[in-house]
Amino acid sequence: MKIELKLFLTRLLPFILILIGIPLISYLIWFSTPTQLADILIIDKTVRDKSYSEHQGIFWTMEHGKIQNSSGHFYDKSMDYLGFFPNGTETRGEKRDLTGKSKSQIDSLVAKNDLIFFADTYGVFENDFDKPPVESPSKKIYGGMDLAEIQLISSAKRQGKTVIAEYNSMASPTPKPIRTEFENLMGVKWTGWIGRYFDELDTVQNKDIPRWMISQYQIQHGKWDLIGPGLIFLKESGEIEAFIFNRDVLNKTPLIRTQKVNKHGFSLPQVVPYPDWFDVVLIERDYQVVSYYDINPTAEGLKRLRTMGLPRFFPAVVFRQLDKSRQYYFAGDFSEIKEDLGSPRFSGLPFLWRSLYVAADFSDRRSFFWNYYNPLLEQIMDEALKAKD
Protein backbone atom coordinates (compact mmCIF):
# COMPACT_ATOMS: atom_id res chain seq x y z
CA MET A 1 0.00 0.00 0.00
CA LYS A 2 2.84 2.37 0.88
CA ILE A 3 4.54 1.67 -2.47
CA GLU A 4 1.30 2.37 -4.34
CA LEU A 5 0.80 5.66 -2.43
CA LYS A 6 4.38 6.69 -3.10
CA LEU A 7 3.93 5.91 -6.81
CA PHE A 8 0.66 7.90 -6.89
CA LEU A 9 2.29 10.93 -5.23
CA THR A 10 5.25 10.74 -7.60
CA ARG A 11 2.89 10.85 -10.58
CA LEU A 12 0.88 13.66 -8.98
CA LEU A 13 3.94 15.84 -8.24
CA PRO A 14 4.28 17.35 -11.76
CA PHE A 15 0.63 18.47 -11.69
CA ILE A 16 1.11 20.01 -8.22
CA LEU A 17 4.16 21.90 -9.49
CA ILE A 18 2.18 23.17 -12.47
CA LEU A 19 -0.84 24.24 -10.38
CA ILE A 20 1.22 25.92 -7.67
CA GLY A 21 4.60 26.62 -9.23
CA ILE A 22 3.55 28.49 -12.37
CA PRO A 23 1.15 30.89 -10.58
CA LEU A 24 3.78 31.48 -7.89
CA ILE A 25 6.47 32.29 -10.45
CA SER A 26 4.02 34.53 -12.32
CA TYR A 27 3.21 36.42 -9.12
CA LEU A 28 6.88 36.78 -8.16
CA ILE A 29 7.69 38.21 -11.59
CA TRP A 30 4.84 40.73 -11.24
CA PHE A 31 5.90 41.54 -7.67
CA SER A 32 9.53 42.18 -8.67
CA THR A 33 8.63 44.38 -11.66
CA PRO A 34 9.34 48.08 -10.92
CA THR A 35 6.30 50.24 -10.24
CA GLN A 36 5.45 53.23 -12.42
CA LEU A 37 4.20 56.47 -10.90
CA ALA A 38 1.46 58.33 -12.76
CA ASP A 39 -1.49 60.45 -11.72
CA ILE A 40 -4.55 59.45 -13.75
CA LEU A 41 -7.93 61.13 -13.37
CA ILE A 42 -10.90 58.92 -14.26
CA ILE A 43 -14.45 60.22 -14.60
CA ASP A 44 -17.31 57.72 -14.46
CA LYS A 45 -20.85 58.96 -13.87
CA THR A 46 -22.49 55.63 -14.75
CA VAL A 47 -21.87 53.68 -11.56
CA ARG A 48 -25.08 51.80 -10.77
CA ASP A 49 -23.64 49.34 -8.26
CA LYS A 50 -20.41 48.30 -6.63
CA SER A 51 -19.27 46.15 -9.52
CA TYR A 52 -17.93 49.38 -11.10
CA SER A 53 -18.46 47.73 -14.46
CA GLU A 54 -17.80 50.88 -16.51
CA HIS A 55 -14.27 51.36 -15.20
CA GLN A 56 -13.10 48.14 -13.55
CA GLY A 57 -11.19 47.12 -16.70
CA ILE A 58 -9.26 50.40 -16.64
CA PHE A 59 -8.24 49.89 -13.01
CA TRP A 60 -7.34 46.25 -13.69
CA THR A 61 -5.03 47.34 -16.51
CA MET A 62 -3.36 49.96 -14.33
CA GLU A 63 -2.69 47.56 -11.47
CA HIS A 64 -1.43 44.83 -13.77
CA GLY A 65 0.99 47.38 -15.26
CA LYS A 66 2.01 48.34 -11.69
CA ILE A 67 0.91 51.93 -12.16
CA GLN A 68 0.61 53.73 -8.84
CA ASN A 69 -0.35 57.28 -7.97
CA SER A 70 2.25 59.81 -6.84
CA SER A 71 1.59 58.75 -3.22
CA GLY A 72 2.80 55.24 -4.08
CA HIS A 73 -0.56 53.47 -3.86
CA PHE A 74 -2.43 51.37 -6.39
CA TYR A 75 -5.64 52.89 -7.68
CA ASP A 76 -8.83 51.76 -5.93
CA LYS A 77 -11.77 51.35 -8.31
CA SER A 78 -14.24 52.10 -5.49
CA MET A 79 -12.69 55.45 -4.57
CA ASP A 80 -10.19 56.88 -7.04
CA TYR A 81 -12.48 58.42 -9.62
CA LEU A 82 -14.89 61.32 -10.02
CA GLY A 83 -18.57 60.73 -10.66
CA PHE A 84 -21.34 58.81 -8.93
CA PHE A 85 -20.80 56.71 -5.80
CA PRO A 86 -23.73 54.35 -5.03
CA ASN A 87 -24.48 53.92 -1.34
CA GLY A 88 -27.83 52.11 -1.15
CA THR A 89 -29.66 55.03 0.49
CA GLU A 90 -32.85 56.76 -0.67
CA THR A 91 -30.77 59.18 -2.74
CA ARG A 92 -29.10 56.12 -4.39
CA GLY A 93 -25.65 57.63 -3.96
CA GLU A 94 -23.52 60.74 -3.80
CA LYS A 95 -21.79 62.86 -6.43
CA ARG A 96 -18.12 63.73 -6.22
CA ASP A 97 -17.08 65.76 -9.22
CA LEU A 98 -15.82 69.16 -10.32
CA THR A 99 -18.95 71.04 -9.25
CA GLY A 100 -18.00 74.32 -7.58
CA LYS A 101 -14.36 74.18 -8.70
CA SER A 102 -12.90 77.45 -9.96
CA LYS A 103 -10.92 77.71 -13.18
CA SER A 104 -7.66 77.94 -11.23
CA GLN A 105 -8.57 74.85 -9.19
CA ILE A 106 -9.29 72.92 -12.38
CA ASP A 107 -5.99 74.09 -13.86
CA SER A 108 -4.18 72.87 -10.74
CA LEU A 109 -5.96 69.51 -10.95
CA VAL A 110 -4.90 69.11 -14.59
CA ALA A 111 -1.31 70.07 -13.73
CA LYS A 112 -1.19 67.23 -11.19
CA ASN A 113 -2.42 64.58 -13.62
CA ASP A 114 -0.72 62.91 -16.57
CA LEU A 115 -3.84 61.43 -18.17
CA ILE A 116 -7.55 62.26 -18.02
CA PHE A 117 -10.02 59.51 -18.90
CA PHE A 118 -13.75 60.04 -19.47
CA ALA A 119 -14.87 56.45 -19.03
CA ASP A 120 -18.62 57.17 -19.08
CA THR A 121 -20.65 60.34 -18.55
CA TYR A 122 -24.11 58.93 -19.35
CA GLY A 123 -25.14 58.83 -15.70
CA VAL A 124 -27.63 56.95 -13.55
CA PHE A 125 -31.44 56.89 -13.77
CA GLU A 126 -34.18 55.79 -11.40
CA ASN A 127 -34.89 52.51 -13.21
CA ASP A 128 -31.21 51.51 -12.97
CA PHE A 129 -31.90 50.60 -9.36
CA ASP A 130 -34.94 48.42 -10.00
CA LYS A 131 -34.49 44.71 -9.34
CA PRO A 132 -33.75 43.67 -12.04
CA PRO A 133 -32.85 46.95 -13.81
CA VAL A 134 -35.44 48.03 -16.38
CA GLU A 135 -34.28 49.29 -19.79
CA SER A 136 -36.79 52.07 -20.36
CA PRO A 137 -36.72 55.88 -20.13
CA SER A 138 -36.93 57.18 -16.57
CA LYS A 139 -35.97 60.22 -14.52
CA LYS A 140 -32.29 61.12 -14.45
CA ILE A 141 -30.60 61.09 -11.06
CA TYR A 142 -27.22 62.28 -12.28
CA GLY A 143 -25.30 62.42 -15.53
CA GLY A 144 -24.16 64.20 -18.64
CA MET A 145 -21.04 66.25 -19.25
CA ASP A 146 -21.02 69.75 -17.76
CA LEU A 147 -19.14 73.04 -18.14
CA ALA A 148 -16.52 72.18 -15.50
CA GLU A 149 -15.49 69.11 -17.52
CA ILE A 150 -15.27 71.21 -20.67
CA GLN A 151 -12.89 73.49 -18.74
CA LEU A 152 -10.97 70.36 -17.71
CA ILE A 153 -10.48 69.27 -21.35
CA SER A 154 -9.55 72.81 -22.39
CA SER A 155 -6.95 73.05 -19.62
CA ALA A 156 -5.54 69.61 -20.50
CA LYS A 157 -5.19 70.71 -24.11
CA ARG A 158 -3.29 73.84 -23.06
CA GLN A 159 -1.06 71.96 -20.63
CA GLY A 160 -0.15 69.16 -23.04
CA LYS A 161 -1.90 66.30 -21.21
CA THR A 162 -3.40 63.11 -22.68
CA VAL A 163 -7.19 62.97 -22.80
CA ILE A 164 -9.28 59.87 -23.55
CA ALA A 165 -13.03 60.15 -24.07
CA GLU A 166 -15.27 57.19 -24.66
CA TYR A 167 -18.69 56.52 -26.17
CA ASN A 168 -21.57 58.71 -24.99
CA SER A 169 -19.35 61.53 -23.75
CA MET A 170 -21.27 63.99 -25.91
CA ALA A 171 -24.63 62.28 -26.44
CA SER A 172 -27.76 62.52 -24.27
CA PRO A 173 -28.09 63.58 -21.48
CA THR A 174 -25.25 66.05 -22.17
CA PRO A 175 -26.83 69.44 -23.08
CA LYS A 176 -26.32 70.49 -26.70
CA PRO A 177 -24.27 73.65 -25.89
CA ILE A 178 -21.85 71.50 -23.84
CA ARG A 179 -21.72 68.94 -26.66
CA THR A 180 -20.77 71.66 -29.14
CA GLU A 181 -17.93 72.80 -26.85
CA PHE A 182 -16.76 69.19 -26.51
CA GLU A 183 -16.83 68.67 -30.28
CA ASN A 184 -14.82 71.86 -30.85
CA LEU A 185 -12.21 70.94 -28.24
CA MET A 186 -11.88 67.29 -29.23
CA GLY A 187 -12.30 67.69 -33.01
CA VAL A 188 -14.92 64.94 -33.09
CA LYS A 189 -18.50 65.50 -34.26
CA TRP A 190 -21.38 63.17 -33.45
CA THR A 191 -23.71 62.38 -36.34
CA GLY A 192 -26.61 61.91 -33.91
CA TRP A 193 -26.69 58.16 -34.62
CA ILE A 194 -25.84 55.31 -32.25
CA GLY A 195 -26.06 51.61 -33.00
CA ARG A 196 -26.17 48.24 -31.30
CA TYR A 197 -25.89 44.66 -32.49
CA PHE A 198 -28.36 41.94 -31.43
CA ASP A 199 -27.64 38.28 -32.12
CA GLU A 200 -31.39 37.67 -32.44
CA LEU A 201 -34.03 40.29 -33.22
CA ASP A 202 -36.97 37.92 -32.82
CA THR A 203 -38.65 39.14 -29.62
CA VAL A 204 -39.96 35.64 -28.86
CA GLN A 205 -36.43 34.25 -28.73
CA ASN A 206 -34.66 37.34 -27.34
CA LYS A 207 -36.25 38.87 -24.24
CA ASP A 208 -33.36 41.33 -23.76
CA ILE A 209 -34.48 43.73 -26.49
CA PRO A 210 -35.75 46.85 -24.66
CA ARG A 211 -39.51 47.38 -24.84
CA TRP A 212 -39.09 51.08 -25.61
CA MET A 213 -36.98 50.18 -28.66
CA ILE A 214 -39.66 47.81 -29.96
CA SER A 215 -42.41 50.39 -29.39
CA GLN A 216 -40.44 53.12 -31.12
CA TYR A 217 -39.82 50.90 -34.13
CA GLN A 218 -43.49 49.87 -34.32
CA ILE A 219 -44.62 53.51 -34.29
CA GLN A 220 -42.35 54.33 -37.26
CA HIS A 221 -42.45 51.08 -39.26
CA GLY A 222 -45.82 49.56 -38.42
CA LYS A 223 -44.64 46.32 -36.82
CA TRP A 224 -41.55 44.64 -35.42
CA ASP A 225 -41.17 41.76 -37.89
CA LEU A 226 -37.41 41.39 -37.45
CA ILE A 227 -35.76 37.97 -37.27
CA GLY A 228 -32.14 36.86 -36.99
CA PRO A 229 -28.96 38.83 -36.23
CA GLY A 230 -28.90 42.52 -37.00
CA LEU A 231 -28.10 46.09 -36.09
CA ILE A 232 -30.46 48.69 -34.67
CA PHE A 233 -29.57 52.31 -35.41
CA LEU A 234 -31.12 55.07 -33.29
CA LYS A 235 -30.95 58.81 -33.95
CA GLU A 236 -31.14 61.51 -31.33
CA SER A 237 -34.19 62.94 -33.08
CA GLY A 238 -36.04 59.64 -32.54
CA GLU A 239 -35.55 57.86 -35.86
CA ILE A 240 -34.90 54.12 -35.68
CA GLU A 241 -33.66 51.78 -38.42
CA ALA A 242 -32.91 48.05 -38.53
CA PHE A 243 -30.15 46.48 -40.64
CA ILE A 244 -30.69 42.73 -40.99
CA PHE A 245 -27.93 40.19 -41.60
CA ASN A 246 -27.87 38.95 -45.22
CA ARG A 247 -30.36 41.62 -46.28
CA ASP A 248 -28.63 44.90 -45.33
CA VAL A 249 -25.26 43.75 -43.94
CA LEU A 250 -23.01 40.79 -44.69
CA ASN A 251 -21.00 40.81 -41.45
CA LYS A 252 -22.90 38.88 -38.82
CA THR A 253 -21.50 41.26 -36.17
CA PRO A 254 -19.84 44.67 -36.59
CA LEU A 255 -16.09 44.15 -36.97
CA ILE A 256 -13.38 46.39 -35.59
CA ARG A 257 -10.54 46.38 -38.10
CA THR A 258 -6.96 47.46 -37.44
CA GLN A 259 -4.22 47.33 -40.04
CA LYS A 260 -1.57 44.79 -39.06
CA VAL A 261 1.24 47.19 -39.93
CA ASN A 262 0.19 50.73 -39.08
CA LYS A 263 2.19 53.91 -38.80
CA HIS A 264 0.65 54.64 -35.41
CA GLY A 265 2.61 51.78 -33.80
CA PHE A 266 -0.40 50.06 -32.19
CA SER A 267 -0.20 46.29 -31.95
CA LEU A 268 -3.78 45.02 -32.06
CA PRO A 269 -5.67 42.15 -33.70
CA GLN A 270 -6.56 42.83 -37.32
CA VAL A 271 -10.21 41.85 -36.82
CA VAL A 272 -12.29 41.74 -33.63
CA PRO A 273 -16.11 41.41 -33.51
CA TYR A 274 -17.84 44.07 -31.43
CA PRO A 275 -21.43 43.32 -30.30
CA ASP A 276 -22.33 46.38 -28.21
CA TRP A 277 -23.29 50.06 -28.35
CA PHE A 278 -21.30 52.40 -30.58
CA ASP A 279 -21.73 55.93 -31.88
CA VAL A 280 -21.08 57.13 -35.40
CA VAL A 281 -18.77 60.14 -35.41
CA LEU A 282 -16.99 62.35 -37.91
CA ILE A 283 -13.40 63.44 -37.24
CA GLU A 284 -11.21 66.37 -38.22
CA ARG A 285 -8.42 65.79 -40.73
CA ASP A 286 -5.61 65.89 -38.17
CA TYR A 287 -6.98 62.74 -36.54
CA GLN A 288 -5.46 59.35 -37.28
CA VAL A 289 -7.66 56.26 -37.35
CA VAL A 290 -6.29 53.40 -35.25
CA SER A 291 -9.30 51.12 -35.87
CA TYR A 292 -12.61 51.37 -37.68
CA TYR A 293 -15.98 49.61 -37.79
CA ASP A 294 -16.91 47.52 -40.80
CA ILE A 295 -20.51 46.28 -41.06
CA ASN A 296 -20.03 45.22 -44.71
CA PRO A 297 -23.29 46.62 -46.10
CA THR A 298 -25.01 45.13 -49.12
CA ALA A 299 -25.85 47.43 -52.04
CA GLU A 300 -29.23 48.06 -50.41
CA GLY A 301 -27.59 48.59 -47.02
CA LEU A 302 -25.11 51.08 -48.46
CA LYS A 303 -27.96 52.99 -50.08
CA ARG A 304 -29.76 53.15 -46.72
CA LEU A 305 -26.61 54.35 -44.95
CA ARG A 306 -26.25 57.19 -47.44
CA THR A 307 -29.91 58.13 -46.96
CA MET A 308 -29.21 58.31 -43.20
CA GLY A 309 -26.16 60.50 -43.88
CA LEU A 310 -23.71 57.85 -42.69
CA PRO A 311 -20.44 56.68 -44.26
CA ARG A 312 -19.47 53.16 -45.37
CA PHE A 313 -16.93 52.83 -42.53
CA PHE A 314 -17.17 54.36 -39.03
CA PRO A 315 -14.21 55.34 -36.81
CA ALA A 316 -13.80 53.07 -33.77
CA VAL A 317 -10.60 54.43 -32.16
CA VAL A 318 -8.93 57.66 -33.27
CA PHE A 319 -6.25 59.97 -31.91
CA ARG A 320 -4.43 63.15 -32.73
CA GLN A 321 -1.21 64.74 -31.57
CA LEU A 322 -1.45 68.40 -30.50
CA ASP A 323 2.05 69.61 -29.57
CA LYS A 324 2.69 67.64 -26.36
CA SER A 325 -0.88 66.51 -25.80
CA ARG A 326 -2.75 63.58 -27.30
CA GLN A 327 -6.49 63.26 -27.67
CA TYR A 328 -8.20 59.88 -28.10
CA TYR A 329 -11.82 59.03 -28.79
CA PHE A 330 -13.28 55.53 -28.44
CA ALA A 331 -16.54 55.36 -30.41
CA GLY A 332 -17.91 52.39 -28.48
CA ASP A 333 -18.92 51.31 -24.99
CA PHE A 334 -15.58 49.52 -24.68
CA SER A 335 -14.90 49.88 -20.98
CA GLU A 336 -17.99 48.09 -19.64
CA ILE A 337 -16.99 44.73 -18.18
CA LYS A 338 -19.61 43.14 -15.93
CA GLU A 339 -17.73 39.88 -15.34
CA ASP A 340 -14.99 39.42 -12.75
CA LEU A 341 -11.52 39.76 -14.29
CA GLY A 342 -9.66 38.08 -11.45
CA SER A 343 -6.49 39.30 -9.78
CA PRO A 344 -4.22 41.55 -11.88
CA ARG A 345 -1.14 40.56 -9.86
CA PHE A 346 0.16 37.83 -12.15
CA SER A 347 2.65 38.52 -14.90
CA GLY A 348 1.66 37.29 -18.35
CA LEU A 349 -2.01 36.89 -17.46
CA PRO A 350 -3.35 38.92 -20.43
CA PHE A 351 -1.28 36.77 -22.78
CA LEU A 352 -2.76 33.61 -21.22
CA TRP A 353 -6.34 34.89 -21.47
CA ARG A 354 -5.80 36.03 -25.07
CA SER A 355 -4.83 32.48 -25.94
CA LEU A 356 -7.93 31.09 -24.21
CA TYR A 357 -10.47 33.72 -25.31
CA VAL A 358 -10.52 33.60 -29.10
CA ALA A 359 -10.91 37.08 -30.61
CA ALA A 360 -13.70 35.85 -32.88
CA ASP A 361 -15.83 34.81 -29.89
CA PHE A 362 -18.16 37.73 -29.13
CA SER A 363 -20.45 35.79 -26.76
CA ASP A 364 -18.29 36.62 -23.72
CA ARG A 365 -17.43 40.30 -23.23
CA ARG A 366 -14.11 39.32 -21.63
CA SER A 367 -12.91 38.13 -25.03
CA PHE A 368 -13.14 41.71 -26.32
CA PHE A 369 -11.37 43.01 -23.21
CA TRP A 370 -8.43 40.61 -23.39
CA ASN A 371 -7.96 40.73 -27.15
CA TYR A 372 -8.58 44.40 -27.88
CA TYR A 373 -9.36 46.79 -25.05
CA ASN A 374 -6.64 45.73 -22.59
CA PRO A 375 -3.76 45.90 -25.11
CA LEU A 376 -5.13 49.20 -26.44
CA LEU A 377 -5.15 50.72 -22.94
CA GLU A 378 -1.70 49.34 -22.13
CA GLN A 379 -0.20 50.97 -25.21
CA ILE A 380 -1.93 54.33 -24.63
CA MET A 381 -0.85 54.41 -20.99
CA ASP A 382 2.73 53.52 -21.95
CA GLU A 383 2.70 56.43 -24.39
CA ALA A 384 1.33 58.80 -21.74
CA LEU A 385 4.02 57.71 -19.26
CA LYS A 386 6.75 58.29 -21.86
CA ALA A 387 5.41 61.78 -22.53
CA LYS A 388 5.55 62.49 -18.80
CA ASP A 389 9.30 61.71 -18.51
Structure description:
It is a single chain. The protein is an alpha/beta fold and about 400 residues long. It folds into three domains: about 1-30, no CATH class; about 35-185 and about 335-389, no CATH class; about 190-275 and about 295-310, no CATH class. It is about 30% helix and about 25% strand. The strands form four sheets. The protein has a ten-stranded mixed sheet, sandwiched between helices. Helix 2 packs across helix 9, helix 3 (about 105-110) packs across helix 4 and helix 8 (about 350-355) packs antiparallel against helix 9 (about 365-389). It is globular, with a radius of gyration of 23 Å. Keywords: Membrane, Transmembrane, Transmembrane helix.
Low-confidence stretches: none
Give the CA-based shape: globular
H/E topology pattern: HEEHEEEHEEEHEHEHEEEEEEHEEHH
The major beta sheet can be summarized as: 10 strands, mixed
Keywords: Membrane, Transmembrane, Transmembrane helix
Which structural traits does this protein have?
389 residues; 3 domains; globular; alpha/beta; 32% helix; 10-stranded mixed sheet; 4-stranded antiparallel sheet
SSE diagram, text form:
Layout: H1 2-32, E1 36-37, E2 40-44, H2 56-64, E3 67-68, E4 82-86, E5 93-96, H3 103-112, E6 115-120, E7 124-125, E8 140-142, H4 147-159, E9 162-166, H5 176-186, E10 188-198, H6 211-221, E11 230-235, E12 240-244, E13 255-257, E14 271-273, E15 278-283, E16 288-294, H7 299-307, E17 314-322, E18 325-330, H8 349-356, H9 365-388
Parallel strand pairs: 1-3, 2-4, 2-6, 6-9, 9-18
Antiparallel strand pairs: 4-5, 7-8, 10-11, 10-15, 11-12, 13-14, 13-16, 16-17, 17-18
Helix pairs in contact: 2-9, 3-4, 4-5, 8-9
